[in-house]
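Sample 1 of the test manifest.
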Amino acid sequence: MTVPASVTELTAALAGQRYLTDASLATVLFLGLRLGKPVLLEGDAGVGKTEVAKALAAALGRKLIRLQCYEGLDVTSALYEWDFAKQMLEVRLAEGGGDARADLYSERFLRRRPLLEALAPDPAGPPVLLIDELDRTDEPFEAFLLELLSDFQVTIPEYGTVRAAAPPIVILTSNRTREIHDAIKRRCLYHWIGYPSAERELAILAARAPEVPAALAAQIVGFVQRLRASDLFKLPGVAETLDWGHALVALGSVELDPATVEATLGVLLKYQDDLARITGDRVRALTDAARTGAP
Amino acid sequence: MSDAEARGRPAPTGARLAANVTHFVRLLRRAGLRLGPGDALDAQRAVAAIDATVRDEFYWALHAVLVRRASEHELFDEAFRLFWRDPMGAHSALALLLPQMKTPINRSVSRRLSEAWRPPAPPSPPPPTAPAPRIDTFLAYSSDEVLRHRDFDQLSAEELDRARALVRRLELDVRPLVTRRTRPDARGREIDRARTVRTALARGGALLELRRRRRLTRPPTVVALCDISGSMGRYSEMVLRFLHTLLAHRGRGHVFVFATRLTNVTRALRQRDVDLALARCGAEVGDWSSGTRLTACLREFNRAWSRRVLGQGAVVLLVTDGLDRDDPGELGAEVARLRRSCRRLIWLNPLLRYAGFEPRAGGVRALLPNVDEHRPVHDLDSLDALAAALAAGAPRR
């Protein structure tokens, strides 16, 4: 598929992949595609940052290349590595045969890692490059990335310069465990993904977990939305809502009741002090509110 | 310098001008700008290249050569106004400017300028321009010895200046973290395969020797939560200076201050000039010296910031006297949460100076069992001890 011509078109294409965006996110993504700029998505865990890239790649019919970041990520795991064993074997073979050695630093011995992969030409069009959880890397890698994002070319000393014929579509995500350097932020279009409204969350649940009966889905969303209004250390994300939907269906629930909610609360809340805060009475109140739809 | 009769005139000419330019550069250097003899020469050339009788031209010519950062502009501006109005007698006027501030708000750079103006004292303390050798403790001059054991609270303005200069010179060593990055090292633990192959190729393909590498280390991030409420008095300012030094030396670090609200002042403190940095802090905060809401501020930090700044093995310095009127139980819970989300939690407490200090206040009792370390922070020695503690590194939890 070609690049969508409008925000509406892009929203529809993503919806086709069962990813429901709101207008602001769709606009940022559209501008990213249009202007050829990377998009930096920040937001709490479980709001669908990584899913965006997957849905976008599928909607455009492009390859998705994912680079999962961690502290100390370096060139050998992010960009390329020489296949040491193969090279040594080649040396031995050449010695045995007595003929001139093949070039040990050629394509054949190059192991492409995600970033180099993303620069390679692709008949389907430039791939979607997802640089996930950028905040987990460290400054040296950020500096390197900055260079890559500005001209989409890298130089491998023994091999030469690799330049992308068409720059990939870049999505960066961050959980904000560290502030991303300003220089990177300046290169990117920035968007903060918040928690969805009740209507949108209901639509997401319907799209992603169609086996959940409509009445139960409405109660689930009502409960989670109210839970997010309380004072918690870690609010449940959309991913948790979907997990909970699956869990309740697996338990055969058709509507929420305090006992089941209490038994499955660990799907939504992942911190002991949060669980301690939402106990019997609070669960009952929230459940009743979710069932009656009262504010 | 000859007796300058240049009052009111923008610039004298000839040899006296050259001498005055040299003095001016020296003054700026004493006030903390990094200028070498080469810069003095450049200043002379710049002044020679323009019409020195036009004040603006003269000003900007010197500015162009001597100011390298936006943050130095203010200092230069003030120095220029004072010096060229009266190259010799300005320090008497400056002496009157010595502020007697209780808080770091709106302190101007003039205090440092006045330090620079003072005729150099007889040799005992080194002038603040002496390049600091790399040492891990404060310089121990005899007169400093006296300084080191007195509380900041009782220092005269001049002594406080000295103490600040000492804090500025403090070099910090923090026990490093091992990273995943490597560098070549003949005695390293890991085999560097890429370099081994390259070496082998250079020798014609025979695998004669293995190349090795070792892991690099980096200092851990320091995140400081500094209480600036009234009871902390001048300690918070000293600690902020200490933290300014810390941030200047290493890229990673965050500083928060709190009294009734929590404010992230990292960006303000990143300003190179320590006085300007503190002034900026003051402008950002706005609740210096009001009451403490320790529990509420810690909760806010845990909710809004801890995940953002405590990643990657941070050491947390909690600077507070622990005097809090909130419920001790809740305070304990928040501190425990903070401790669980960092590598080490060090509590710096100015009240520890009293030999008879007993943890009687509820807040203190709530804090004590939930921190890794409890240390005093009331005189230079304790900052020294802190630097040593950060260097030594306690066993990891």
